[in-house]
Amino acid sequence: MNKQLRSVIMTVGSLFALLAITCSSAVAGSAPRGSALAGESGLRAAGVKAPASACATLKAGDVYWVTLDDSGAIDKAVDSYPDGTSKVTAAFDYNCIPKKTKLAIIWSIDGEQVLSDSDTPKATDKANTYSYSLYKKDDSALENGDYGVEFYVGDTLLATSKVTVGAITSTNVTTTTKTDQTTVTVQGVVSDSRSKKPINAAVVVVLKEGIDPSAWLKDGTDDDVLAFAKTDSKGQFELNEQVPTNVALPWIVGAKGYKTIVESEYTIEEGSDDPYIMDITLQRSK
Amino acid sequence: MATQPTLTSPDRYAKTSFHRKSIWRSAAIAVVVLLVFVAAVIALDRLLNPQLSGLALLGVGVVLAVVPAGLWLTFFYVQDRVEPEPVGYVGRMFVIGFALAGALGIPLTNSVFRVQDWLYRDPLSTIFGSLLIGAIETFIIYATVRYFMFDEAEFDERTDGVVYCTAAALGYATAINLQFILNSGGSGLGGSEVYIAELALAYAAFGGVIGYFLGHAKLERDPIWWLPLGFLITVLLSGLFFVMRGQLETGGISVGAPAELPSIKGLVLAGALAVIVTAVVSLLVNRDVNRALSSQPNASGGDPTIGDRQANWVVVALFAALLLIGAIGWNGVVNGVTAFNNGAIGGAYPSGYGIVKDPAAALHVADRVGSGAEFIVASKALQAGQDVRTVSSMLAAERATAYTAYKLIDTRPAILNNRQVQVQQFAYVDAAGLNGGVPRVIQGADYIFMMNNRAVIATMLAAPDTIGDVDPLFTAFVNSLTIK
């Protein structure tokens, strides 16, 4: 028994040692994650980095918009920015930052992407606030419009928000604050439940209330569809129509080679964040 | 394949097996160690968050794919301490199982029958698909041992079938796992390892079942139905496992950040299956050994391997029958059609496709949650002097302004159902998607017919990586069109 136990312990020990050695060497020699991002449109951006770590996962709160004081510290939160604003700053509170976390930040004006950048904030196991500003190189006024920001960790959308500069559009302020809205914009990422790899060309369908999703899958028509989206190569999607809150609606999420999720009744609670960010995982069929 | 007996009656029957009373306990320990290993991988993955590519990915992929199989096999081998099988033979079964999986099993299930694309389409397709997967995988495990080990002198104990089949099954699982981890690009190693361990345990269980029947067949004079029964039980067990796993592991929708820990329901199911199968097989083997030791050896004349050979042919026939049943089911699911009749135009489109609201089309259907392919039938009034070639040119001109990077790939006349048609192939870029996503290339084809003073245009739109699957369906669709 002792001999057997020894051989078992040695075998298991060897396997763990082999695994640890392989993982360590792989980590040491691997390339950093995320694509190289570059500034565009004469705009520059600067990150205010938070202050290393036993942290496992970065969790972000809602994005809010702020102004900065002369020292570059956060002055106050705002709902929108006036005409002539030269800098907009998006901030979110986080729990901690794991080592080697690489953030990708994407800015858009009126839906058109104007800047992509990456940032590797210092690891910390303390909660703090992360902020990122957008401004022109010559510090001149920013154009009026709807400004959007998206923060990603790897391929995963961490947080996103929009804000208006100047009083020009219908949606004066679209922030992640909770309101009594009756519809929400739905965004998210569809990924493999095991490998977490984003799934390209996955389909997200929200059907009208009362439609049987299983029957629709067999012989459904577009008349029954309330909102629809197909994921891009990053697994990201945004439904083409806003989705009402507090209504139980049938949802279908599917992709080639994956088991289709059929939710007969999925309700987005009233007062949910807008945009409503979803993380959807699909199980491989086989 | 050589079928020369290496043990002859009555020696063959005098040879019995040693009791292995604690094999089930060993199995339980193995499962626990495997769970600990998986937990360690998840912890390491979260701690180090490795981003792998190239050789590093291959190295880690091999280690992560082989370790669960190696761990399980090691415990079985340690149990076989009284008269252990030669490591070389066990390794040979593993390697052959691995090779046959890569050369036959995986290509058959994934590329020929493409089971992953239709397995869960409806309850009937789930049954057919599970039978098909189970039959292919079980036959390869069975064939590995039956044709490469069964007639060897070292195969001389009842549990040898279990050991060798388990090795072959783990080779099969390792091939699937290696492919999975390499395809996933090294992302989510923790979650991937749960899946890898799950498959290793499940396949070890399948190997254990068919191995018991093979071991029994080698040591006993069994009726001709014995091996086919074992084969069928293993196929059904395999199918049942995949159906149950499909019910447990469904994916999910969550709000905000993704779940931090991977689901282990499938792993728990596979672990329970492995322990139960090992315990039952252990009990059956010990019962058989006791019976053999307490009774006179069967010294009746004749070549005892004749029965084995006959039973083997029945297994082959059974496998062929299951393959045929699976193929019929596959054909019904994949090539099933729904008829339509829209006044002047009728035909049949693939049954998995749904109708798209499109006032401009006589019919517009799409494979919404599958390939995403679309089939559209529209008609266009012709003016004097216009023919199918004119329509073809007009379509190309319209699309060139409507789509990004529209390109006509080929246009040519053809004959279809005794009608002259103009066939043109094209491609364009669909920029849809959020920031960060790569725009998609859409590939298409038109079949343009003349009908009185109108042109009927049947169009296919599909992603280039699915065009090979979609094109035969579209050809069948176009062939089905009837124009009054």
Describe the structure.
The complex is a heterodimer of chains A (286) and B (484). Chain A folds into 2 domains: 43-165, Immunoglobulin-like (Sandwich), CATH 2.60.40; 183-282, Sandwich (Immunoglobulin-like). Chain A has 2 helices and 18 strands. Chain A has helices spanning 2-28, 213-219; strands at residues 43-48, 64-68, 74-78, 87-94, 103-109, 112-119, 128-136, 145-153, 156-165, 183-184, 186-192, 203-207, 225-230, 236-238, 243-244, 248-254, 261-267, 276-282. In chain A, the strands form 5 sheets. A 5-stranded antiparallel sheet of chain A has the order 1-7-4-2-3, with no helix packed on it. Chain A has a 4-stranded antiparallel sheet with strand order 6-5-8-9, with no helix packed on it. Chain A is globular, with a radius of gyration of 23 Å. Chain A starts with a helix and ends with a strand. Residues 1-53 and 168-181 of chain A have low confidence and may be disordered. By secondary structure, chain B is an alpha+beta fold. The N and C termini of chain B lie far apart (60 Å). Chain B has a 7-stranded antiparallel sheet, sandwiched between helices. Chain B has 2 domains: 11-250 and 261-334, no CATH class; 337-483, Mog1/PsbP, alpha/beta/alpha sandwich (Protein Transport Mog1p, Chain A, 3-Layer(aba) Sandwich). Helices cover 57% and strands 16% of the residues of chain B. Chain B has helices spanning 11-14, 23-48, 54-79, 87-112, 123-148, 158-183, 189-219, 226-248, 265-294, 305-334, 388-402, 467-480; strands spanning 252-255, 337-342, 345-350, 354-355, 363-366, 374-381, 404-416, 419-430, 440-451, 454-462, 482-483. The model of chain B is unreliable at 1-19 (pLDDT under 50). In chain B, helix 5 (123-148) crosses helix 6 (158-183). Chains A and B meet through helix 1, strand 5, strand 11, helix 2 and strand 14 of A and helix 2, helix 3, helix 7, strand 1 and strand 4 of B.
Descriptive labels:
heterodimer, A: 286 residues, mainly beta, Immunoglobulin-like, five-stranded antiparallel β-sheet, four-stranded antiparallel β-sheet, disordered N terminus, B: 484 residues, alpha+beta, Protein Transport Mog1p, Chain A, 2 domains, three-stranded antiparallel β-sheet, 12 helices, 11 strands
